[in-house]
Each structure stands twice: as C-alpha cells, then as structure tokens.
Structure to design on (383 residues):
C-alpha cells in the first residue's frame, strides 16, 4: 500500500478538502488517516467567486488568482502533514483537481478550465502532483465528468447490499449521483444545483457566506408554482451523460425563472415572494431534482440512498430531501457506513492519483460519453 493525498475544492467554494489516504488499488483497500478542510483566505475567495461567474477578465487577475489558489492548496497540505507528523517523502503523489472556473463540454469546441499551477504545488510540498484529470476523457469524446462514480463503485464494494439499487449522492455546490444495480454501476451524472443557488441567494440577502443549518430557509415556505417553473428547465430532463456547474446554475438563471413566475402568476411588486420563501423553494429544487433523477433509473424498486457532501449539514435541505422520498427509497448518511461525509471527494482524487500511478484507467466511458477507457491525469514531479 502507498500513501496519497487528495485535494478538492468544489463549486460551493466552502474551503479546501485534503485527505491523507493509504491505498492499495490492486487489492482494493483504502484507509483514510486524516482529513483537513480549511476555508479559503478572504482575498482568494473573493477572486474565485468573481471568476466562477464572470471569468472573462484581465489575464493578470486570473493568473494571480491561480497562484494564490495553488499556495493555499500547498498551505493546506503542509498543515495536514505537520499536524500528522508525516514526512512528505513518504507520500507517493498528490491528486489535485484544481478549481473549476468554467466547464463547457457541450460547446462547439469542448473545454474545461481548472486553475492550478501543478509545478508550484509540487515544489512547495516536495511531492509529485497528479492533475488535469478531465482532459483526457474529453480528448476521447467524453464530457470529462463525472469523475467520481468509478471511485464510488470501488469504495462501495464493501457496502451491505440489501436493496435492488444503491445510490450515492454527493451534495456539493452541484449535486451528483452514482447509481448501482447491485454491484453494477449503471449511471452517474450531475443532477443539478446542490448548494450553489442556495449560497448565492443567501449571500444576496445576508452578510454570511451560507445559510448555516438551513436556518433561514426554515423560516420560509416553498411555493409549488415556482418550484414547477424551476424544474421546467431542460437540464433536468436531459439524458445522461450530462454535467453542469455555476456557469449554468447561477443568479442570472434564477432571475430568468423568477421573471417567468411573476409573469405567469400575475404577481405585482406588492405580492412578490419573500426572500426566505425563495430560499426554501431552492432547497426543494435541490431535493426534488435529486429524487426525480434517481427514480428515472430505479422506478419503485427498493433503493438505498447514501448521502454525503456539504449539503448534509444543511438540516432544512436534508429534511426536504427525506420528505420527498417515495416509500421505496431508504436514506442514510455515508458516515453511518464508516466514511467522512465531507472527505469523500478529496478521497476520490487521492484514489485517482493512485490509479494514475498504477496505470489503471479510471474514467467511466458509459457515463462520460468517451469512446474508450483511459488513464486520467497528468504528472508533474517536484524534482
């Protein structure tokens, strides 16, 4: 077994997840020794927030943001190693996704853009870096996403199988699912917004970054007509493979549907929805879009829904998710199965780095649309 570090920062921009994992890819074993999740420094968070919504900016600003981000990644890794008293020389590689600022697999010239200076990260940590995970899948006709379902399949091999279907849903900025028929991975895709719209709408009306525990949303009432309007977006009925991000689900997207809602319902300025009501409706949007996506595959068969990601800490969102579940779906947290709900994506990139080092293909062509299985990632040595 070899030691790997996985780094992930997602569309919710809630911090940098770092996992220290011992992995034997060949024999199928993994131990997560430590997990560290510091927030972004304020200056970097402000720059990333702008770039994720308006990336067409002066190149110097983009470049400086990338270097700040890389140094923040290095600080997070070095802090974890110091806390655990681990020598960098014992780490085989860091698997780092970088920060996605634009993902456009369906454009005329498909591309994806993650900020990261892999050479600087390798030098600052004295550890080799595996990065650029999406590019090769896209080069072979795929969307470069989703990346994590093969890891979920590898990780889920030891889960008890008391159901016809098992679904692992990760609620980050964007929610994504991996769907298994017994041990067979049959689907994996982004279902739509997770925390992204909730955070953006909350930030418009409050000074904090997110609605802690969903407390603000819990003071509002969801509006079925608005929810129906939001769910009418073509993305929700689009067939997989599909992937999305903040470049699609953002406040401009929301405002478009709010305008349509007011036009259809003939609401006046005196009868506009309270901000808390819209927040609660966005919570229901995340919950309902997840469940509807799952039922496309599972129908009414017995299904175990395993939930992880930052959205699990939003008590109102988790309650809304459980309330829209049909009787055929039983929900549980990933933590009840022995894994940290917050560390799952960082663990995934540690695993992807291990696969790269072992020459093991780690994409899922049936899910991404690629025409072949390929070894993902590029390697930058620190020496």
């Amino acid at each position: 077994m070899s030691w790997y570090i996985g780094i992930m920062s997602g569309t919710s921009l809630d911090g940098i997840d770092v996992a220290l994992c011992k992995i034997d890819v060949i024999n199928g074993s993994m131990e997560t020794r430590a997990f560290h999740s510091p927030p972004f420094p304020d200056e970097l968070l402000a720059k990333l927030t702008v770039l994720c919504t308006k990336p067409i900016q002066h190149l110097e600003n983009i470049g400086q943001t990338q270097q700040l981000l890389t140094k923040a990644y290095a600080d997070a890794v070095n802090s974890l190693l110091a806390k655990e008293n681990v020598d960098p020389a014992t780490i085989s590689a860091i698997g780092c996704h970088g920060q996605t600022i634009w993902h456009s697999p369906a454009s005329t010239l498909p591309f994806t853009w993650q900020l990261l200076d892999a050479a600087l990260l390798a030098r600052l940590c004295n550890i080799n870096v595996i990065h650029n995970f999406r590019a090769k899948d896209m080069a072979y006709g795929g969307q470069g996403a989703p990346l994590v379902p093969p890891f979920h399949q590898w990780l889920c091999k030891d889960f008890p199988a008391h159901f016809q279907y098992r679904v692992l849903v990760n609620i980050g900025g964007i929610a994504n699912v991996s769907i298994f028929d017994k041990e067979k991975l049959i689907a994996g895709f982004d279902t739509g917004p997770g925390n992204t719209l909730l955070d953006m709408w909350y930030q418009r009306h409050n000074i904090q970054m997110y609605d802690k525990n969903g407390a603000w949303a819990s003071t509002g009432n969801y509006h079925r007509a608005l929810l129906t309007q939001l769910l009418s977006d073509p993305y929700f009925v689009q067939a997989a493979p599909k992937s999305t991000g903040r470049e699609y689900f953002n406040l401009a997207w929301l405002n478009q549907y709010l305008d349509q809602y007011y036009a259809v319902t003939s609401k006046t300025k005196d009868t506009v929805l309270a901000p808390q009501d819209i927040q609660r409706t966005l919570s229901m949007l995340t919950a309902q879009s997840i469940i509807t996506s799952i039922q496309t595959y599972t129908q009414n068969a017995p299904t175990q829904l395993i939930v992880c990601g930052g959205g699990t800490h939003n008590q109102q969102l988790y309650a809304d998710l459980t309330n829209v579940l049909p009787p055929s779906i039983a929900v549980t947290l990933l933590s009840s199965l022995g894994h940290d709900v917050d560390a799952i994506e960082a663990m995934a990139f540690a695993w992807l780095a291990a696969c790269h080092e072992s020459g093991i293909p780690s994409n899922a062509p049936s899910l991404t649309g690629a025409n072949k299985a390929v070894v993902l990632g590029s390697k930058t040595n620190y020496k």
